[in-house]
Specification:
heterodimer; A: 233 residues; alpha/beta; Rossmann fold; six-stranded mixed β-sheet; four-stranded antiparallel β-sheet; 10 helices; 10 strands; B: 326 residues; mainly alpha; two-stranded antiparallel sheet; 70% helix; BCAA_Transport_ATP-bd_LivF (chain A); P-loop_NTPase (chain A); ABC_transporter-like_ATP-bd (chain A); ATP-binding (chain A)
Chain lengths: 233, 326
């Protein structure tokens, strides 16, 4: 579904963070991208979304080259992005935030209500200003807002960041259910191994702007040295 | 939170509508003039309050509309019939087109944001003012005098509108229509997207919105409304001069809107009415020191009540769909 080859990207010319990265995701996979801070995880998802000024190489999505397209075109091809820090609209109500997820979509979306099955708390809080909700609730809103546009590929950047462990578990379970029921392909950037074990079907480890190894989630479970090699400082 | 107040909003319009019953002709004419400034203020409120685009040169569009109307009705545009209707159409289309093209040029690619956009619009207004001063065909420094009043029909059956009461009613109707149209736009999905872009452009972009296009479109809408106000100004005042294109009026409208409240249309509209009326009273009493008072008031409002003095009172509830629960 997504094929990335020789991806070089960075924030200023001549200073690439990604140094010829290769990455493949098949339809229906839930891939975790793991690595230490500063290895290029967030840069990678931003490059996919067209949010970086300097990107070279090739990114194809369902056979279409998307490298160089502006973010709105990439989004409208069916890739939804839940960025680090959630980036909900704090002055908007929950309902308005969800509306932002569908208004511009090329497919006519009849209802956003299906996300309330996954995140019932949002139904209760439809009229609340999103900025006044807790971190966990905001994260649920950010995911729901990405889902209402009916994407095929969901990019999540550190969904566990700043959220208490019990809520992280809930979110991980819900994401797993969503991926299965909505036939979503998921790429999740994460350092929280607990969430990765609950959600991912495979793991790619990133180091210095390159994917070093890709393994199934079972291999990660049975070989703890993998995690310590790529994650501990 | 304060209770939303749509009854109050209705009351304001009702009071304005009833003014002809109690207000004399002289003041009725004055009120019509103030409402024209009010329409102009709503145009800035829309682009600044909803779109987050602080346009420092909004008078450029007001002036374009005024000149378009004046030149048309005076028959100075070759090949264009000297009719008020054509004047109105030009006064909408010309500023709207200029703003859309300017917007596309400014917002494409990485785009101009924040103060840079303000500076460019300010420069555009100042340039237009200089051009108008030096262009004799459109009256040069002296502007255009004796603009015909609004006329319906032609020949012997033509009806000229110059009495204060009909002018008041026409301007009132225009203000109400502009208010309802802009309010409808603000409360439509387009408005939601615009506020999303105002809050964070990159976020709106990766959620699938062509930010430059939305900004240029809203800029064009605001410019067309400003041009419409300018056209009304031309026929009501019977006089246009380069001053209405430039820096001074651009700054004035900014103050009305900031004092009233940029995010609430009616607050911006009333901001213009209130500041202008107070100016009429105080400039008699204080002379030039009135500007000092206005300046201090402006600074206090920006620091203490950044959302404006009137906005909290006239804020409306969200449309049902965005409140949810319906």
């Amino acid at each position: 579904m997504l094929t990335v080859s020789d991806l070089r990207a960075g924030y200023s010319r001549g200073a690439d963070v990604l140094k010829g990265l290769r990455f493949d995701v098949a339809k229906g996979e839930s891939v975790a991208l793991m690595g230490r801070n500063g290895m290029g995880k967030t840069t990678f998802v931003k490059a996919l979304m067209g949010c970086l000024p300097h990107v070279r190489g090739s990114i194809t999505f369902n056979g279409t080259e998307i490298r160089g397209l502006p973010p709105y075109r990439i989004s409208n091809l069916g890739i939804a992005y839940v960025p680090q820090g959630r980036e909900i609209f704090g002055d908007f109500t929950v309902a308005e935030n969800l509306a932002m997820g569908v208004i511009g979509k090329p497919l006519k979306v009849d209802s956003v209500d299906f996300v309330f099955d996954y995140f019932p708390i949002l139904a209760e809080r439809r009229t609340q200003l999103a900025g006044t909700m807790s971190g966990g609730q905001q994260q649920q809103l950010a995911i729901a807002r990405a889902l209402v546009g009916r994407p095929q590929l969901l990019l999540l950047d550190e969904p566990s960041e700043g959220i208490q462990p019990s809520i992280v578990q809930d979110i991980a379970m819900t994401l797993k259910r969503i991926a299965a029921e909505e036939a979503l392909t998921v790429i999740v950037v994460e350092q929280n191994i607990d969430l990765v074990f609950r959600l991912a079907t495979s793991v790619r480890f990133i180091e210095n702007g390159l994917i070093k190894t890709g393994v199934s989630i079972d291999e990660v479970r049975s070989d703890p040295t993998l995690v310590s090699r790529y994650l501990t400082v | 939170m304060r209770r939303p107040s749509s009854p109050l909003t209705v009351a304001v319009w009702a009071v304005l509508a009833l003014c002809p019953l109690v207000v004399d002709d002289w003041n009725l004419g004055l009120l019509a003039q103030l409402m024209i400034y009010g329409i102009f203020a709503m145009s800035l409120s829309f682009i600044w309050g909803q779109g987050g685009l602080l346009c420092f040169g909004q008078a450029l569009f007001f002036g374009l509309g005024a000149y378009a109307m004046a030149l048309t009705t005076k028959g100075l545009l070759p090949g264009v019939p000297a009719s008020a209707l054509v004047g109105f159409l030009l006064a909408l289309a010309l500023p709207g087109t200029v703003a859309f093209l300017l917007g596309l040029a400014l917002f494409r690619g990485r785009g101009l944001v924040g103060p840079y956009f303000g500076i460019v619009t300010l420069a555009a207004a100042v340039i237009a003012e200089r051009l108008a001063v030096n262009w004799n065909y459109i009256g040069g420094f002296n502007g255009l005098l004796d603009i015909p009043p609004l006329t319906f029909g032609s020949g012997d059956g033509a009806i000229e509108i110059f009495e204060p009461l009909p002018i008041f009613l026409i301007v009132f109707g225009a203000a109400l229509v502009v208010y309802l149209l802009l309010l409808g736009l603000e409360r439509s999905p387009f408005g939601t997207v615009l506020r999303g872009i105002r809050d964070n452009e990159m976020r709106a972009a990766f959620m699938g919105y062509d930010v430059a296009r939305y900004k240029a479109a809203s800029f064009a809408v605001a410019a067309a409304v400003a041009g419409f106000a300018g056209a009304l100004f031309a026929i009501q005042f019977a006089f246009v001069s380069p001053a209405i294109l430039g820096f001074a009026l651009s700054t004035e409208v900014l103050i009305w809107v900031a004092l009233g409240g940029k995010e609430v249309l009616l607050a911006a509209f009333l901001g213009a009415l209130v500041v202008k009326s107070v100016e009429n009273v105080l400039s008699d009493a204080l002379g030039q020191y009135w500007l000092l008072v206005l300046g201090i008031l402006f600074i206090l409002s920006v620091v203490l009540l950044p959302r404006g003095l009137l906005a909290p009172v006239f804020r409306l509830r969200l449309p049902r769909g965005l409140r949810g629960g319906g």
